[in-house]
Structures are given as C-alpha cells and as structure tokens.
Design brief:
With about 220 residues, the chain is of the alpha+beta class. About 40% of the residues lie in helices and about 15% in strands. It has a single domain, classed as NADH Oxidase (3-Layer(aba) Sandwich), CATH 3.40.109.10.
C-alpha cells in the first residue's frame, strides 16, 4: 500500500470482528515499529501484549475491579481553549450522530463510551508504558512508536484504536500485566480486524487546513 493511502486509511476503530490475530503477527508489528524515531536511541516504550484467551481473562478481571482510578496524568488541559475545544466537541457530536445517539440520550452515550472497557470487541490489546524517570521528549517518542505501529497494522489489513481511556484504570491494568512500579501506563491500544459493517467505523474526523496550523516564514 502507498504510504499516503495507509495514512488516510488509519482510523480509530470502534468496532472489531472476533477474528483472531496471532502473537507472531503482533510480534512482527512491534519489531518493525521499534524503528520509529527515538531521541538518543533511548527507546522508552515498554509494551505489554494481551491477546486471545489472556484478553478474555483480563475482561473478567476488570469486571471485579473499581471502575476508575485517579489518572496519573491529565489527558486534556483544564479550560481547553479554541480552536481545540471545538475540534474535540465536534468529533464527539459526529460520532454520536453516526451512531444515531441523540445528545439528550445520556444513557446511550454512556453505553457507547463504556465500549472502551471491552476494547471495542477487539481480540488483542497492547498497553504502552514508560519509565517514570522519562520526560516530555520521551513521551513524544511514545507517540512516534505508536503511530508507526498503527500504520504498520493498517498495512497488514488490521485496525487499531489508541485508548488513553486506560489511564483512568491504570491500577487494574498494571496488576493484570505485572508492570513494575517504576513504569507508568500511557495508553492502551485495541488491535484486530475492522468490522466494516459497523456504522461507527464510517466516521472520518475533520482536520485543520494547512493554513490554519502552519506558517511559511
């Protein structure tokens, strides 16, 4: 696949089929993604893969744990200013409209959000941790690693959804995967085959134009 086609095809998949993904496929994706840029070659990502039967056991385990923890980092700034606030709001409205969930249907919206907790039916999940000694530049490395991984997945006929949602359930995730105390959970990622029949996967988010975010000096 042409790189630009892969970039445009990548979406946040919010409904997967039950078709499995082998550990070998995931291992190859991770090995290739490790070629992502990393300042000083530090390679700060620490990855935990939960696949197949292990993910079934994790779902059962999560059902016995508190529904939320105090997050260890702030996902969005307080008082998010424009144009960022509107961009975030519009995406949410577009998603719920695609699903036919009205603004006043609070229960429907909560139910859709709760699908995060089931990894949107994905057969595999990846959790990305970072050593607590790392700083903002190394968090940037995490983003480049994850983007590379997501594009490689598309190239292999798979889909992904990066989920910062798991930062509010970090205690349960950490206990299940056995991550040490010096590692902080950044995000999870659902991985699997895209359910092309699901309306939610028809959503394509809008982007700012180049003139809105770039200045040629």
């Amino acid at each position: 696949m042409e790189l630009v086609d892969t970039i445009y095809k990548r979406i946040s998949v919010r409904q997967f089929t039950s078709e499995p993904v082998s550990d070998d496929v995931i291992r190859k994706l991770l090995a290739d993604a490790s070629r992502a840029p990393s300042g000083g070659n530090v390679q700060p990502w620490r990855i935990y893969v939960v696949n197949g039967e292990s993910l079934t056991k994790m779902r059962e385990f999560l059902a016995t744990q508190p529904p939320a923890d105090e997050p260890e980092y702030q996902i969005y700034p307080d008082g998010l200013s424009e144009p960022y606030r509107t961009a975030r709001f519009q995406l949410g409205e577009q998603m719920y409209a695609t699903l036919g969930i009205a603004r006043e249907d609070k229960a429907g919206r909560r139910a859709q959000f709760a699908n995060n907790n089931d990894f949107f039916n994905a057969p595999a999940a990846i959790f990305c941790y970072v050593d607590r000694q790392m700083n903002s530049p190394q968090w940037s490395d995490l983003g480049m690693f994850l983007q590379t991984l997501m594009l490689l997945a598309v190239d292999q006929g798979l889909g992904t959804c990066a989920q910062e949602y798991w930062s509010v359930r970090h205690k349960a995730v950490t206990e299940f995967v056995g991550a040490p105390e010096n590692e902080m959970l950044f995000c999870g990622m659902a991985l699997g085959h895209v359910d092309e029949s699901a309306p939610v996967n028809s959503l394509r988010s809008e982007r700012f134009s180049v003139d809105e975010f770039a200045k040629f000096v």
